[in-house]
Known about the structure:
- The protein is an alpha/beta fold.
- The protein contains 20 helices and 17 strands.
- Strands 15-14-13-12-7-6-4-5-2-1-17 form an eleven-stranded mixed sheet, sandwiched between helices.
- Helix 17 (495-502) links the parallel strand 12 (482-487) and strand 13.
- Helix 5 runs antiparallel to helix 6, helix 10 (304-323) packs across helix 16 and helix 12 (379-392) runs antiparallel to helix 16.
- It is globular, with a radius of gyration of 27 Å.
- Mean pLDDT is 89; it is low at 1-6.
Amino acid sequence: MAENQAPDVKLPDPVEMSRAMTRIAEQSQRLVTEFLSRQASDGVGAKNPDPMGVGHAFLEMTTRMMADPAKLMKAQMTLWQDYLTLWQRTTQRFFGQEAQPVIAPAKDDRRFKDSAWDENTLFDFIKQSYLLSARWMQSTVNEVDGLDDHTAKKVDFYTRQFVDAMAPSNFVMTNPEVLRTTIETGGENLVKGLEHLLKDLERGKGELRISMTDYDAFQVGKNIAVTPGKVVFQTDLMQLIQYTPTTPEVNKRPLMIVPPWINKYYILDLREKNSFIKWAVDQGHSVFVLSWVNPDEKLAQKGFEDYMFEGVLAALDAIEKVTGEKDVNAIGYCLGGTLLASTLSYMAAKKDDRIKSATFFTTMLDFTEAGELSVFIDEEQLTMIESQMAQQGYLDGSKMATTFNMLRANDLIWSFVVNNYLLGKDPFPFDLLYWNSDSTRMPAAMHSFYLRNMYQKNLLAQPGAVTLGGVPIDLRNVKTPSFFLSAREDHIAPWKSTYMGAHLFSGPVKFVLAASGHIAGVVNPPAAGKYCYWTNAKLPKASDDWLASSEQTPGSWWPEWNNWVSTFSEGKVPARDPAKGGLPVLEDAPGSYAKVRIV
């Protein structure tokens, strides 16, 4: 909003406004009544008002901060000096003079993209005041001495959550775009936003589930996850999909993809233009994908080793029956890669070499530096999670989704608060965000084992410290040629941590680093012409040394991987029709497991 521009003012229609507010009041009353009733019958958290230990962490931080008043006073003086400079330069701008900003938002900070944040002196002052306060708050808590590493990370993380929540862009009167829209529409945006808010509360049964996309715009198997194929096998934990070939000949050795079960497999098959599965089929691979079940309380006792036996190993047996091929090339993505590595160690102990090459997408094996997810892994929080799972038999998928969204709160929480609730806009239909909202549950036994043994204790990286199926798992025994794909901006599986994991194997390892993050770094089709990737023929111990001597290549890493895996293809054979294999077809892809939605 330019300083001398007066927007058109629209007076609200009193009849329509009255109807809308009546409808909102009725809906609110019903939601509040249901929420209070549910809270009264739910004892979770009643005995511990701070089950995540956030208050304790901040109390410890405050105690240590006050023990050094001189340091605190110095930080406060620095803030006041910054504010004084800002007031001086703002005064200069009010008198029509040029003045350089004291502080500017990061280039990728989209909260302040509206031109009024720069052009309007008042909003520029609000923006810079916030940025100065945010910088001071985070630097002050980060410089407190004497905190253990985990407490320091927790304080830093939740300070950032508070700072992000308090951004002026999140409030009507301090967001120029929202203020302008409110004046122009006579407040209709706020009424519609309130309706959106109540709808999201109703969808979450009293808990706020922010709508990130138009959920009616997509349907699994109709316009998302549509690569043709057949479900040829299933267990309690997974359905095995074989995809229909698009080439007259295919690689003799099939390709088996093991996705994570924290999310659904179709992140690799969103739509034709960005489907890794479709692209791999077009390159002549015989593609098989494990589609994991969305478990309920009946599967509460399924453990990590059950995912190995009823998942990866069962799929290997089924692929042999379907194709007659004993050996495969395998891909594991995120948690699916952790399972694949564990299975490779188990198979090595059993003298089973059916997996001839292994590819790992953003996979953690050494959890020493587990990134920001480690903030949620301590005894207090694990006890709380296990208490919740004991009641239900599983971890609710929304809990996991909220955790991941908090890692990028400005992009995955507050941007939607502004768009949906303040601007009153409908969410934009976006395939990736539809997938992101299609949450999956975690069986209680498996999830507790995974969090405690891998995240909390980092036992997978220690030879023989984890036992699966009676076999001590030792990743040093894995000699399978491996391709590790990591993403430079990955907040979930930090690339330097995945790089440490790549050193645990004894076989040849090719490490590739993609630009962007956990999803966009992986789902980057060549046709898009986006990003870049780094390669290095050597694998030095230190990740920084690897990057310093690496070679950067523009575009997608997919062709680089295909060239590598093709050396393990064992030639060509006539294309394999899933309907004519060694096992009967159960149903069409994507299968019934992938279609189960919990929201």
